[in-house]
Design brief:
heterodimer, A: 7-stranded mixed beta sheet, 50% strand, B: mainly beta
């Protein structure tokens, strides 16, 4: 996962707390993505950013906000965490061409109690 | 119906066996296809892209059948280290990529 750094690696929140998951890349790729992965559900797209200054909703955006701060950074914010948001969150990047693959960060394991 | 479907397995095979997985997709306009490998509690890692004419990388062969809307992954001479979950990914249009649920492979000694 060279070039995609996610922080933190682990986090435990209480219901109603807020937090921001950070993602930074040094591969100069245009597109950045946030996925969540739950047992039996596979990877589901929360939000993506095709390029700096743009963001779009994915399959499961409710309860989340994102910011594409610059080309390098794409953050995911939970304003009021809920137990249903307990999951593993992956940031991914892509060069932009439709035949280019995704490269993932290590992931953030979030538990909401 | 899910957009991208895979048999969840597990596929239990002995070392040295040949094993194949299929992945079906529902959008006939899908443009590009990939296979990823994911180890337990790790991030998905690209195994190989899937090209229209089929492609091979060592013991791994990927095929695309547009008429029947599926992609396949063939692993020859399975190793213990091939034990993992294999995810297929389909690019429908633009920047949207959809993942299958994954197929779990367990290679036994």
């Amino acid at each position: 996962n060279a070039g995609v750094t996610q922080t933190p690696k682990f986090q435990v929140l209480k219901t109603g707390q807020s937090m921001t998951l950070q993602c930074a890349q040094d591969m100069n790729h245009n597109s950045m993505y946030w996925y969540r992965q739950d047992p039996g559900m596979g990877l589901r797209l929360i939000y993506y950013s095709a390029s700096e200054g743009t963001t779009d909703k994915g399959e499961v955006p409710n309860g989340y906000n994102v910011s594409r701060l610059n080309k390098r950074e794409f953050s995911l914010r939970l304003e009021s965490a809920a137990p249903s948001q307990t999951s593993v969150y992956f940031c991914a990047i892509r060069f932009t061409l439709t035949d280019s693959p995704l490269h993932f960060g290590n992931g953030t394991r979030l538990t909401v109690t | 119906r899910k957009e991208v479907e895979q048999d969840p397995g597990p596929f239990n095979v002995p070392e040295g066996a040949t094993v194949a997985f299929n992945c079906t997709y529902s959008n006939s306009a899908s443009q590009s296809f990939f296979w990823y490998r994911q180890d337990c509690r790790k991030e998905p890692k690209l195994l190989m892209s899937v090209y229209s004419s089929g492609n091979e990388d060592g013991r791994f062969t990927a095929q695309l059948n547009r008429a029947s809307q599926y992609i396949s992954l063939l692993i020859r001479d399975s190793k213990l280290s091939d034990s993992a979950t294999y995810l297929c990914v389909v690019n429908d249009a633009g920047n949207m990529l959809t993942f299958g649920g994954g197929t779990r492979l367990m290679v036994k000694p």
